[in-house]
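Hey Z.,

So I finally got round to the beta-D-mannopyranose thing we talked about over coffee. Here's the setup:
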Amino acid sequence: MKILTPELYSAPCIKKLEKPVLTKDDIPYDASLIFNAGVAKFNGQYVMVFRNDYGPSEENYPSVRFKTSIGFATSEDGIHWKVRESTICDSADLLPTDELVRLYDPRITIIEGKPYLCMAMDTKHGVRGCIAEVDDNFENIRIISASAPDNRNMVLFPEKIGGKYVRLERPFPVYSRGGKDRFDLWLSTSPDLVYWGETELVLAVEDVPFANDKIGPAAPPVKTEKGWLTTFHAVDRDETRGKNGWEKAWKKRYCAGIMLLDLEDPTKVVGMSKLPLIAPENYYETEVGFRQQVIFPGGMILEDDGEVKIYYGASDTVECLATAKLDDLIALCTEAR
Ligand code: BMA
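And the result:
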């Protein structure tokens, strides 16, 4: 295992599955990097919408450029997945004249029985965050709202709060935060999922002891008696780090953090773990893959027996699953560690 300093570890209550739950070998079409999936329980099964970056290999990267498709899979147990032959969308289908370049990093939220996807959206004029409606078969998407650049990593809450839809998001204030990645986690509300406003800061990068670079939302929040339980991604950067993947150098490490937000006013952080929830440790998180040392949750499911499933992309290459008990996750947020 490659050790980055300072060493960071997952919380003791986290149990990682030994192998990824989805890799390129499971995909019935051109696939290379399968990661950053959204996962939900919907109509009696688990559904997954995942990112597939394909085209280049480690040998010919970066002269061959990635294409990106969004795939769909279902599961009876949340562990073994069946991937559908047809994708939801594919950047290869876009025309060179189109403004949209690709959609990626999908998250699923079911609101009043209807599935919605939040995605990052690269366009010719900047990175935007979008919300899309999707039919119950996850075949056709319709983008209903897209932010101004620079924003992405949006996640919707599963119900209205105070009569309004709510999302967490991560704008990129490149000029006003010192010209570096100093990006924070924000919240906006909407009467209709289309028009968004009342934007407030929730958590700043300097509030997170294991981040020195940027933070942002991860999986959509889960409602608990103690508050909205939600993961976030947290990045530390070290200029001395060298080759950690396909690129000449990859200087960032992504961990997952966890916090509780107030049930009625989710701009208020009720508690946050001062240590990472999930850190890169395993072989497929630290030794192999496109960008090693990256953990990026996109789906969190609370089961009836109190088990929480957390799905995360590892090394921007495979999709993994960790589990924990709800009570332990709440304790991490409310008891100082
Ligand atoms: C972010 C996004 C994520 C990715 C991460 C690490 O900026 O592109 O999709 O997982 O970088 O490469």
